[in-house]
Task: inverse folding
C-alpha cells in the first residue's frame, strides 16, 4: 500500500493516477472522502497532516508515502510514519531547498521538511521540480473577466513542468529502490517567459489575449492582496534578486520515465476546459 498525501492537489492527484494505472494499491489522503472522485480501487482516508497523531489510521499498513512539505510538525509526522512501518518517503520539495537561505520563507519550509525526512532515518527521495505549468491557472479570474492577462516578473524564463510529469516521476520513485537517497529535479522541455505561455494559451483557447507585464511595484501590490508579505518577499528574492534559476532544462523526466516531458501546449490542451 502507498499513501499519497495532497491527493486532490495538482501533483498528488497525478501521483494517485499514475500508481493506480500501474495496478498498485493506493490510499489517498483527502478531506471529504465521500465527495472526491478517485480512480477505481483507490482507498480514500482522512487525517490532519498538522496533527501527526491523527495520521495513525492512514499510515497503518502503508509501505511508502508521497509527502507534501511545510506542515507544523514535520519531525513528528515522519516519526509517526516510521512507527507505522513505512519504509520509504518521497517528498515534494522545491528548487530553492538546497540554497540554505533560511531567511527566505519558502526556502525555509522546504529545507526544514527535507531535514526532517533526512533525520528520520527513513529511506527518502526528494523531488525539486521547476515551477508548475498549472500556475497558469492563477490567470483564470482575469480570463473570466476579459482578455488582458497581467503577470508579475515578465522577464523571468522558467522551464515549467507539467504536474503530470512530476506525478510520473514520483510514482517511479515510490515503486523502485533505484532513486533512494537521490534528489530528482523534473523540468519541462524548454524555458519560456510568461508572454510565450499566454500566447500558447491564446492559441489553444482561440482567444485574442493581451499580455501585460507588471512592474515590480505593481507586482508587489497585486501579490500582497492575496499573499503574506514574507512569501511576497520570498518570490521577489527568487525572481527579482535572482536567487533561484528555474530556466535550466534537465533530462530528469526522460531519464526516470523513459519519455520526454510534456510541453506547455500539451498541458494547455489537456486543461483547456478549466479556462472556459
Result:
Amino acid at each position: 500500500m502507498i499513501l499519497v498525501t495532497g491527493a486532490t492537489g495538482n501533483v498528488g492527484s497525478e501521483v494517485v493516477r499514475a500508481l493506480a494505472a500501474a495496478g498498485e494499491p493506493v490510499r489517498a489522503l483527502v478531506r471529504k472522502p465521500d465527495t472526491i472522485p478517485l480512480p477505481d480501487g483507490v482507498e480514500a482516508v482522512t487525517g490532519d497532516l498538522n496533527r501527526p497523531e491523527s495520521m495513525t489510521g492512514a499510515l497503518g499498513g502503508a509501505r511508502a508515502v508521497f509527502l507534501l512539505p511545510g506542515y507544523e510538525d514535520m519531525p513528528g509526522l515522519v516519526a509517526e510514519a516510521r512507527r507505522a512501518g513505512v519504509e520509504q518517503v518521497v517528498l515534494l520539495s522545491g528548487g530553492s531547498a538546497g540554497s540554505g537561505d533560511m531567511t527566505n520563507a519558502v526556502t525555509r519550509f522546504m529545507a526544514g521538511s527535507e531535514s526532517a525526512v533526512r533525520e528520520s532515518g527513513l529511506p527518502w527521495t526528494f523531488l525539486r521540480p521547476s515551477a508548475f505549468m498549472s500556475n497558469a491557472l492563477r490567470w483564470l479570474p482575469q480570463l473570466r473577466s476579459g482578455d488582458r492577462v497581467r503577470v508579475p516578473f515578465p522577464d523571468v524564463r522558467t522551464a515549467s513542468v507539467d504536474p503530470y510529469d512530476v506525478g510520473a516521476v514520483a510514482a517511479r520513485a515510490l515503486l523502485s529502490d533505484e532513486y533512494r537517497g537521490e534528489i530528482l529535479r523534473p523540468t519541462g522541455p524548454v524555458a519560456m517567459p510568461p508572454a510565450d505561455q499566454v500566447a500558447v494559451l491564446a492559441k489553444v483557447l482561440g482567444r485574442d489575449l493581451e499580455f501585460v507585464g507588471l512592474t515590480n511595484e505593481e507586482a508587489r501590490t497585486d501579490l500582497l492582496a492575496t499573499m503574506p508579505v514574507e512569501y511576497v518577499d520570498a518570490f521577489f528574492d527568487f525572481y527579482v534578486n535572482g536567487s533561484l534559476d528555474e530556466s535550466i532544462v534537465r533530462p530528469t523526466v526522460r531519464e526516470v520515465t523513459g519519455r520526454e516531458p510534456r510541453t506547455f501546449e500539451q498541458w494547455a490542451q489537456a486543461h483547456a476546459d478549466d479556462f472556459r
